[in-house]
Amino acid sequence: MGLLVALWAVLASVLACAGVLHAGEQPLSRIAIRRATVAVADSASVKARPAVLGLKGQSSDWVTIEFSHPNPSNDDWIGVFSPSGFSSEICQPENWEDLPPFLCTAPIKFQYANFTNDGYNRTGKGSLKLQLINQRADFAFALFSGGLSAPKLVAVSNKVTFENAKAPVYPRLAQGKSWNEMTVTWTSGYSIKEALPFVEWGPKGGHQMLSPAGTLTFGRNSMCGSPARTVGWRDPGYIHTSFLKELWPDALYTYRLGHRLSDGTHIWSKSYSFRASPYPGQDSLQRVVIFGDMGKAEVDGSDEYGNYEQASLNTTKQIISDLENIDMVIHIGDLSYANGYLSQWDQFTAQIEPIASTVPYMIGSGNHERDWPDTGSFYGYNDSGGECGVPAQTMFYVPAENRAKFWYSTDYGMFRFCIADTEEDWRPGTVQYKFIEHCLSSVDRQKQPWLIFLAHRVLGYSSASWYEIMMGSYGEPMGREGLQDLWQKYKVDLAVFGHIHSYERTCPIYQNRCVQDGSNHYSGRFNATTHVVVGGGGASLSPFRATVPYWSFFRDFDFGFVKLTAFNSSFLLFEYKKSRDGNVYDHFTISRDYRDVLACSTDNCPRTTISV
């Protein structure tokens, strides 16, 4: 066993150098904060201004850091800590025989001291402009020497805080369990003992009503391992969800988040708006954006290691710029890449706020949300950094029967989306397999002709190098074996996956054969499901294998997302857009009268083989 572990370590190192491994490295994980020591220099200093942020009610603001060090070096860096009393926290040793560390809380972000300061090594003086978001606590800035592997605390700044650090922030819309229900989830620093959460909402320009919100949170002991339980832990605050019901189809609504304090006063967010979902089967223009594996990045350039998730800013920028032409977003797993550093969830929800506060932001579960050994996840890896799904299922609402199980269906007008959870067992005989078949078989194709299957890991086809080297396959082992008959039987138009950080589209394929040639236009009867990998939302790209399989019609080693546009019940436009410019680089259309699909209702679809 020891030899196997050693061989795996060598292989992993080689693959990482070759750019094949795509799991990523959380930038904060590079900081050996538990090895930190004190090297305070009297002549060193760090000053931050302004001391109070968000004076106009905004949830993000800029702060200027000025610092000096008598013995500067290229390894010096500034860490942003929140709460500000990071050095006073009582640290517990990870092992009983170890001494307690001096510091046990990772910064929420960091930047090297010589960033934009070319003369720092000569003068020992520099400044940085950093963007902070409201995260329910105050901030302090610390100057370290010794690099990230052996940090030495040199100086600490004054405290900086938002005017109302507890304010309600970062609303996330999601579809409810019925077509005419919208849910609003947000974060605040108010417990239910301090204030009652609610949403004030109503038709634009019409009567406004109040809907109460439920409140959830989680503690350190809910985490399954390190770093989420140790250096990455940060109090998540309180997560509130309200259900806005009996909406009129396609109507425009306004809303704002509220908290009623014990003295009767109210704390308000700014006002937002959304458009209610169309009635199932409604023949109108309907547009949905899909991608996976985005992550988050800092607009000030901090926290970046090898630009691992920098492209996520381009993805969000392009979606925001086209938001008037988007009705819903589906992010199919690997959301924030917090990987056990809980502060990053706030930063992710802040980055997507312009999108998620305006259109439903539906999510799937990925390995970086769920996977952790011995916790019930299908894969026993440590990709979640000890989170084991808890932050994701608390921070976001999904219309699932069990929020710990991220499989669910959601209808939007002429679309039926069946969203599977690849981090839980999906094979025949399991509860999830039964859900998948029920989701596919129970849809009324007269009302919702466009049937889409989505999951994080590639249960279909991918020519990525990662699958070739790690699995010796073209997708997850056991993936399509149990599902391809369902896709064919129930005539699934598209199967969309993430996990592989690039874009690929297949021919309409079944049982490893192209039932129809790849094309930019399909018409007539349904032949087979087209498989799409769209995991290029922002995390570092995944290369392809050198040879192109016969079933791979289009592939692109770049960041991007997919947009589906249903013009009516018989014409669908599929577009792949690059995040760098928002232009279309692959597309196809489907035009069908769907008489063959309408002949297929619950449990009476004839079995189809490649010989038919």
UniProtKB/TrEMBL annotation:
Domain named Purple acid phosphatase C-terminal: residues: 528-587
Domain Calcineurin-like phosphoesterase: 287-503
Family of this protein: Belongs to the metallophosphoesterase superfamily. Purple acid phosphatase family.
Domain Purple acid phosphatase N-terminal: 171-275
Leader peptide range in chain numbering: 1-23
Organism ancestry: Eukaryota, Viridiplantae, Streptophyta, Embryophyta, Tracheophyta
Documented EC number(s): 3.1.3.2
Reactions mediated catalytically: a phosphate monoester + H2O = an alcohol + phosphate
Any one Gene Ontology cellular component term annotated for this protein: extracellular region
The name this protein goes by in its record: Purple acid phosphatase
InterPro entries the record matches: Calcineurin-like_PHP (IPR004843), Fn3_PAP (IPR040974), Metallo-depent_PP-like (IPR029052), MPP_PAP (IPR041792), PAPs_C (IPR025733), PAPs_N (IPR015914), Purple_acid_Pase-like_N (IPR008963)
Keywords recorded for this protein, A-Z: Glycoprotein, Hydrolase, Secreted, Signal
Keyword Glycoprotein: yes
Residue ranges of every copy of the Purple acid phosphatase Fn3-like domain listed in the record: 46-164
PANTHER family: PURPLE ACID PHOSPHATASE, PURPLE ACID PHOSPHATASE-RELATED
Molecular function as annotated in GO: acid phosphatase activity; metal ion binding
